[in-house]
Design a protein that fits this description.
InterPro entries: HAD-like_hydrolase_phosphatase, HAD-like_sf, HAD_hydro_PyrdxlP_Pase-like, HAD_sf. The protein contains 12 helices and 7 strands. The chain has 283 residues and is of the alpha/beta class. A 7-stranded mixed beta sheet has the order 4-3-2-1-5-6-7, sandwiched between helices. The structure holds magnesium ion (MG).
Length: 283
């Protein structure tokens, strides 16, 4: 029997936006950012891409949990002597954000639609990178449901998982399921990219393993949204999209937030229904 007891959260959640008509929830790495920030740190500051891939393979093969393997990757950054402040600065310099996210964010604000970031990464790093795009004030205010960090006096640091008892470290579905339980739930949009940002390196044989081992990361949340947007990256394998097609999960493919925004606007303005938006299929 599948255990459906929600994992205990060590970190607070922002209050549910129960009175809103729409809520936009989005993955961070590979969805709002154009490359995975934690992969970037591991590859450039930590033990490098070879060991990272080996860790991912172990996750996909079910030999290790995401929680444990991901921590080993991050710990390799710390072991190389990179302080928390340095990591923040490196990511602020090197992580590029989706060209349309700022427009999307401004539109949501103007329509009183909360934007909530749901991530397997660490909230303070996300805020740091985001401040570059939307400014310090907005980056401070935006709701982020992610993991946290413990920074020691000597500058060394360690990821602090939201759900230490879950193999995901952060079970993203817990951010969206409470909406479904409301008597009058807002319409939820969810934006995700892939099962994980780094599977693009893998052979097709491994991708097969991966699709069998789902739900994984975004999938756990994506299944529960009213309108699911799946990011398509030119030249990359788009696994979440392939998975959704196989599983018959209705979704809209989008290349960037400007494109998604056009469709979101039509839904928010009442010109089309969620069902009709899903039938469009591509933003
Ligand atoms: Mg992602």
């Amino acid at each position: 029997m599948i255990d459906t007891t929600p994992p205990v959260s060590t970190l607070p959640y922002p209050p549910l936006h129960a009175d809103k008509k729409f809520v936009a929830l989005s993955d961070w790495d590979g969805t709002i950012t154009n490359r995975d920030s934690n992969d970037y740190m591991t590859d450039n500051l930590g033990f490098g891409p070879e060991k990272r891939r080996a860790g991912n393979l172990a996750i996909l093969a079910g030999k290790e949990t995401f929680r444990d393997a991901f921590k080993v990757m991050l710990d390799s950054v710390v072991a190389n002597g990179h302080s928390w402040e340095e990591c923040k600065e490196v990511l602020k310099k090197n992580i590029i954000l989706d060209v349309g996210f700022r427009n999307f964010y401004d539109f949501c604000k103007s329509k009183d639609i909360p934007v909530v970031i749901i991530s397997s990464g660490m909230a303070p790093l996300i805020r740091a990178v985001l401040s570059k795009l939307i400014g310090d004030d907005e980056a401070e205010k935006i709701e982020i449901i992610a993991n946290d960090v413990e920074v020691r006096e000597d500058g060394s640091w360690e990821i602090k998982y939201r759900h230490p008892s879950s193999g995901f470290g952060h079970d993203k579905s817990q951010a969206i399921l409470p909406y479904r339980a409301l008597p009058n739930p807002p319409t939820t949009f969810f934006f995700g990219d892939g099962v994980s940002g780094n599977i693009f390196d893998y052979s097709s044989r491994v991708r097969t393993v991966l699709t069998l081992s789902l739900p994984f990361l975004d999938m756990s949340a994506a299944r529960h949204a009213d309108l699911l947007f799946v990011k398509q990256k030119p030249g990359a394998d788009n696994d979440l999209s392939a998975f959704c097609r196989r599983e018959g999960i209705p979704h809209v493919q989008f290349e960037d937030f400007n494109r998604a925004l056009d469709l979101v606007k039509r839904v928010v303005d009442g010109n089309i229904t969620v069902k009709e938006a899903l039938e469009v299929g591509t933003a």
